């Protein structure tokens, strides 16, 4: 299993396995290769297929980003992170809005994993949110101000990085340093719809802005030839750096 810092060269594309069941997910995975991508298992697929599928994907050689966004009292989140780490995942995440005690508990929990310690990142604000949304929630300031504040809290709590929009990546790299890992969802190709992501950007733009890993779903998973699209994106972003 690869365990990167922001400076290493492993696959930078993380394909979102947003499928309703194991069979659909494996139908795509069978067309891919762990040398060219990592995989993200989120709430829908994990609820349907469970940890058994995660273990199977790890055994196939894939680095898995377990995207369950834990957000609960510190002890509960710590226990969940420990269980996730024991699955052998490469990366997992929690919500930064859970607060410092919860974040520190999560960071401590993954250190004790029987597997190689996974990367632990936090969600700052969901990429589906815009300024009107965060004002409705009651958060003060702009999207960027809230994201930066939560990223600093994440770093201070001992985590490895955050999930963020590429539009926030440049500011975060400057504020947090190159080693702080930025994982960017909402990636779309030039000719695709934005779907339900408000803050979107292309792969090249994301890398240029400072994103380390790009989470891409439908542009690859819905393509007639997913591997061909994946290879084209990999070639495109390799030319950036």
Helix share bin: 40-55%
Q: Can you tell me the residue ranges where pLDDT is under 50 for at least 5 consecutive residues?
A: none
Which overall shape is indicated by the principal axes computed on the Cα atoms? globular
Report the order of strands and helices.
EHEHEHEHEHHEHEHEHH
Fraction of residues in β-strands: 15-25%
Give the class from helix and strand content and strand pairing.
alpha/beta
Largest sheet descriptor: 8 strands, parallel, barrel
As laid out across the biggest beta sheet, the strand order is 1-2-3-4-5-6-7-8
N- and C-termini, Cα separation: 23 Å
The structural domain count equals: 1
CATH class: Alpha Beta
Mean pLDDT: 91
Query: What CATH architecture do you see?
Result: Alpha-Beta Barrel
Gyration radius, to the nearest Å?
A: 17 Å
CATH topology: TIM Barrel
CATH homologous group name: Aldolase class I
The count of β-strands is 8
Number of helices: 10
Fold and architecture overview:
Helix 7 packs parallel to helix 8 (203-209). The model has no long low-confidence stretch (mean pLDDT 91). The protein is globular, with a radius of gyration of 17 Å. The chain has 241 residues and is an alpha/beta fold. The longest helix has 17 residues, at 43-59. It has helices at residues 22-29, 43-59, 74-86, 100-111, 131-137, 143-156, 166-176, 203-209, 218-221, 226-238, and strands spanning 13-16, 38-42, 64-70, 91-95, 119-123, 161-163, 181-184, 213-216. It has ten helices and eight strands. It has a single domain (13-234), classed as Aldolase class I (TIM Barrel, Alpha-Beta Barrel). The chain has an eight-stranded parallel β-barrel with strand order 1-2-3-4-5-6-7-8, surrounded by seven helices. It is 44% helix and 15% strand.
